[in-house]
C-alpha cells in the first residue's frame, strides 16, 4: 500500500510563513517606496501588501525609517562587500574593469526596482535628515570610495593619466545617476523615438570616460588645462 506524502501541519505552515515575513515586508516596502516616495508610504500599506498586520511589521522594524534602512541595505548597501571583492580579484585592464563595473551595476541595481531609491533620495532627502545621513554613509561614500579605487588602480598601472580623483569620481558616477533618473522620471517625458537603450548608453559613456582617462603626452594647446596633480601618496580604501 502506497503511503501518501505527509501534508505539512498548520504549525509548520505558520513557521514557514513567519520566517518569510521579513523578506516579504522588505519587498513590499521597496515597491511602495519607489511607487509613492518615503513621505507618502505608510507602514499600514506595507503590512497590507505583505499580508501581515502592522503589529507584525513593527516586530521586525520598529519604525518606517528603520524599514527604509533595511530596504537600502538589502538592495544596495549590502552589495559593496561583493563589489569590493570583485575589484580586488579582477585580472583584466582597468578599462575593462570600469566597463565591467558599469554593466554589473546596471544588472544588479539599475535594471531593478532598487534604482528607484535614487529618485526618492533626490526628491525627499532635504525633508528627512536621518535617512539622508544614513544614505550618505552607507551608499554614497562607499560608492565613491569604490570608484576612487578603480581610478587609482588605473593611474598606478600607468593606464590612466593623473586626474583629480575628487572630481573624476563624479564623472564616472554621473552616467549611472542619469540612467536611474531617466528610468524613473525623465524617460517618461520623452517620445518613444527617444527611448534610451541602457547598455548602449553605458558603452558610449565608458568610451567617453576612457578616452579622457587614458595616458597621453602632455602636449597641445589644452595640455596645461588637462594636466592635474600627481597621484596622492596615501590611497584611500573602502
TrEMBL record:
Segments of the chain annotated as binding DNA: 42-61
Domain spans labelled HTH tetR-type: 19-79
Stretches assigned to coiled coil: none
Polar residues: compositionally biased ranges: 1-10
Pfam family, one: TetR_N
Region: Disordered, residue numbers: 1-21
GO molecular function: DNA-binding transcription factor activity; transcription cis-regulatory region binding
Keyword DNA-binding attributed: yes
InterPro entries noted in UniProt: Homeodomain-like_sf, HTH-type_TetR-like_transc_reg, HTH_TetR, Tet_transcr_reg_TetR-rel_C_sf, TetR_C
Manganese in keyword set: no
Keyword entries, A-Z: DNA-binding, Transcription, Transcription regulation
Name recorded for this polypeptide: AcrR family transcriptional regulator
Organism: Acidovorax soli
